[in-house]
Amino acid sequence: PFEVLVVGGGPAGAATAIYTARKGFRTGVAAERFGGQLHDTLGIENLPGTPYTEGPKLAGELKRHVGDYDIDLMDLAQAVKLVPASEKGGLHTVELGNGASLKARSLILATGARWRNMGVPGEAEYRNKGVAYCPHCDGPLFKGKRIAVIGGGNSGVEAAIDLAKTVGHVTLIEFDTKLRADEVLQAKLRSLPNVEIVTNGQTTEITGANGKVNGLRVKDRASGDERTIELEGVFVQIGLVPNTEWLEDSGLTLTKHGEIATDEEGRTNLHGVFAAGDVTDVPYKQIVVAMGEGSKAGLSAFDYLIRNEPA
Ligand code: FAD
């Protein structure tokens, strides 16, 4: 069995494995796709100390860094079930989609999250070519330009307020008849001169030319009328879905959003089971945050292992 088994190989999983391997613990990493969301990311400009890199390049460097240690990296390994140890200090079991099962004294869950897509024509085609999901990451690319934010919940309205400072004009589009964000955020949004709010609006298509977004089709759900808004960017803010479906029925506490509930040391409600990164309830889903949380969870696992004898 492993002393530490990390499930997930994004920035959080990679960081945690490096930390536990450096403590001399027998560490394994099981990841469906090592690198995680980095593979969907083009330019990264907000990783301090690295002024510019690209997602797949960073994923390759993380893989090389993990490879510098005696870490058993199982790529293309999907976890389908967690069976926690029946007693404190006992072995946890993670079952894989290929029928294998892995045992470990401690687990660090870092299976990340995925942005919910609108599923309209043009969205996938123009991803990273005007269609964006992360205002903290891609906001500055749209300086002075016209953009839309899709979604009138807290994340959409926060994104619109944030982006309105940099971009030329923001159209916020909400499917429902009213915004769902906190009132204080709505008031802030309404006070901004370069923001238009569209409610009861259904985005039907993202249009483009020459490999770049040039507009968005939106239907008024009351009248059925459709119009085109000319713009250069679309930020989709309709939810970030944690990859925790495989943990339902495991006894692990999830929040109402399906995120793994953790304390400030990355501990979950189960002894010897830790979690880090986008899959948890930690605020702000960013690479540097995921790496920091992964390092913390690794050190917490170390602390657990030296204080608890194997059952
Ligand atoms: P993830 O990167 O999601 O990795 C999860 C890992 O778990 C993957 O290896 C995955 O294959 C694996 N996994 C999932 N389910 C299972 C399972 N059942 N069994 C086994 N393995 C599983 N952040 C920034 O800081 N700067 C940016 O510029 C930036 N740009 C972004 C652009 C885009 C388009 C996107 C989508 C995100 C961007 N982010 C950016 C956010 C950043 O990518 C995430 O915050 C970060 O990757 C989270 O790391 P993580 O390790 O928690 O999860």
Automatic annotation (TrEMBL):
The keyword Transcription does not apply. GO terms for molecular function: flavin adenine dinucleotide binding; NAD binding; NADH-dependent peroxiredoxin activity; oxidoreductase activity, acting on a sulfur group of donors, NAD(P) as acceptor. Its cofactor is FAD. It comes from the Bacteria. GO terms for biological process: response to reactive oxygen species. The keyword Transferase does not apply. Binds 1 FAD per subunit. Keywords: Disulfide bond, FAD, Flavoprotein, NAD, NADP, Oxidoreductase, Redox-active center. Coiled coil: none annotated. One of its GO terms (cellular component) is protein-containing complex. Residues 3-294 form the FAD/NAD(P)-binding domain. Disulfide bonds join C134-C137. NAD(+) binds at residues 146-160. FAD binds at residues 3-18, 268-278. Homodimer. Belongs to the class-II pyridine nucleotide-disulfide oxidoreductase family. This is Thioredoxin reductase. It comes from Qipengyuania citrea. The lineage of its organism: Bacteria, Pseudomonadati, Pseudomonadota, Alphaproteobacteria, Sphingomonadales.
